Amino acid sequence: MHWITELLIWLYNDKNRENWWKFNSVAEQIAKDAVIEGFFDINNLCMGVNTPHIVFNYLDYLLWKDNKRKYADFVFEFRNSVEHWYPQHPSEGTFEMWGQDEVDHFGNLCIIQRSVNSRFSNMAPAAKKSTFGQMIRKGSLKLRLMAEVTSSGTDVNIKWKQDYDRHGQEMIGILKNACGID
């Protein structure tokens, strides 16, 4: 969380509190710089659990900022675990024809609390959605969106395999737009 250190240094250096009105723009710029450096400069959308948490937090912020009314119940809180919506090691009986890059792709990932991650275990997306709906509604906005995209019924895991890339590209597009990347 090097980005937070930068923000704290900025706050500390503003001893007379003359520039507090700049707080949001400074915080946003620090977050943008961290996302660019830790994600886009690496140019790897399949980082799995190594995806910097700031990428997910900044995306949640952007989604919330763009639609505060829809996400009025969203709470920014400490989330410290990257979750694979389609699991890395699926439970028996789950569709298993995913390559590692597909499983680790940004479109299949979100950030959650570690305790939620252990409950999700190796369940398929539809099982997570139906079993843990309340946790999902209190979770990150990217998690909520993945659950919305996940359909129910037969072949749902095959359908998620078709949808994760589109979802990922949409989320990456939001980040790129905010970071000024073409």
Layout of helices and strands:
Elements: H1 2-13, H2 23-40, H3 53-66, E1 81-84, H4 100-103, E2 109-112, H5 114-120, H6 125-131, H7 133-137, H8 141-149, H9 156-179
Antiparallel strand pairs: 1-2
Keywords:
about 180 residues, about 55% helix, two-stranded antiparallel sheet
Describe this structure in words.
It is a single chain. This protein has 182 residues and is mainly alpha-helical. Helix content is 55%, strand content 4%. The chain contains nine helices and two strands; from the N terminus they run αααβαβααααα. It has a two-stranded antiparallel sheet. Helix 1 runs antiparallel to helix 2, helix 3 (53-66) packs across helix 9 (156-179) and helix 8 (141-149) packs antiparallel against helix 9 (156-179). The longest helix is centred in the last third of the chain and has 24 residues, at 156-179. The radius of gyration is 17 Å and the shape is elongated.
Brief synopsis:
The protein has helices spanning about 1-15, 25-40, 55-65, 100-105, 115-120, 125-130, 135, 140-150, 155-180; strands at about 80-85, 110. The chain has about 180 residues and is mostly helical.
